[in-house]
């Protein structure tokens, strides 16, 4: 299954429910999942990291659907067709 198919399946199953909530609610759930990911990383729990990454990605895709954002195009433009890593302030 490719990226657009996943995004569309999430839209079909969850879009109506997401519209009944709000963008701030969806964002709050994303931050909750990001916190759970941080805890899994802190514990170095590989299985939990995988699960929480999936939860974070799901929430990002739900937000993308909510705003009709073309995140696939933006990812390609920003990270495949160019390389912004040269501008990152990486730790030494």
**SS element count, helices:** 4
| Whole-number mean pLDDT | 95
Largest sheet: none
Q: What structural class is derived from the secondary structure elements?
A: mainly alpha
Shape descriptor reads globular
Give the radius of gyration: 15 Å
Q: In whole angstroms, how far apart are the ends? A: 38 Å
| Total beta strand runs | 0
Roughly how much helix do the residues carry, as a percent range? over 70%
Low-confidence blocks of residues: none
H and E string? HHHH
- Could you tell me the strand content as a percent range? under 5%
Can you characterise this structure?
The structure is a single chain. The protein is an all-alpha fold. It has a domain of 48 residues. Helix content is 76%, strand content 0%. It starts with a helix and ends in a 12-residue tail after the last helix. The model has no long low-confidence stretch (mean pLDDT 95). It holds the Pfam family MazG. This is MazG-related protein. It comes from Geoglobus acetivorans. InterPro entries: MazG-like_dom.
Describe the secondary structure blueprint for this structure.
Blueprint: H1 3-20, H2 23-43, H3 46-66, H4 71-80
Distinctive features:
single chain, 92 residues, mainly alpha, 76% helix
């Amino acid at each position: 299954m490719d990226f657009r198919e996943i995004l569309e399946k999430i839209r079909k199953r969850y879009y109506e429910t997401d519209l009944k909530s709000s963008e701030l609610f969806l964002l709050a759930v994303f931050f909750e999942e990001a916190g759970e990911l941080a805890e899994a990383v802190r514990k170095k729990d590989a299985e939990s990291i995988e699960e929480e990454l999936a939860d974070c990605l799901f929430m990002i895709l739900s937000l993308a659907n909510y705003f009709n954002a073309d995140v696939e195009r933006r990812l390609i433009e920003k990270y495949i067709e160019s390389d912004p890593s040269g501008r990152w302030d990486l730790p030494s």
